[in-house]
Amino acid sequence: MEGVTDGIVVGKAVIEGVRCDHLAFRAPQVDWQIWIQEGAQPLPRKIVITTLDLPNSPQFSVTVTEWNLKPAFDAQTFSFTPPAGAKEIPFLPH
Length: 94
Prior knowledge:
Low-confidence stretches: none
Order of helices and strands: EEEEE
Number of strands: 5
Number of helices: 0
Shape: flat
Strand order of the largest sheet: 1-2-3-4-5
Radius of gyration: 19 Å
Mean pLDDT: 92
Strand content: 35-45%
């Protein structure tokens, strides 16, 4: 919420058949809205981000229709085997 200058509860809305609370926020360079599912699992259902400091104020919008709250991963999910000839790229420390 860093940089947010204003926020309001817009009201109720239905996103893909799910009743949600619609919230909107303002910051100097970006406005954003979020729709959060009502009930015991308040999951984000839609997000719209409007960039104010670029020509035509482009928007990014995403609607989330399926949540997997109990994903199953095995050891292979996060293992990486580099292809032959690949070279590691060093990164600068923060």
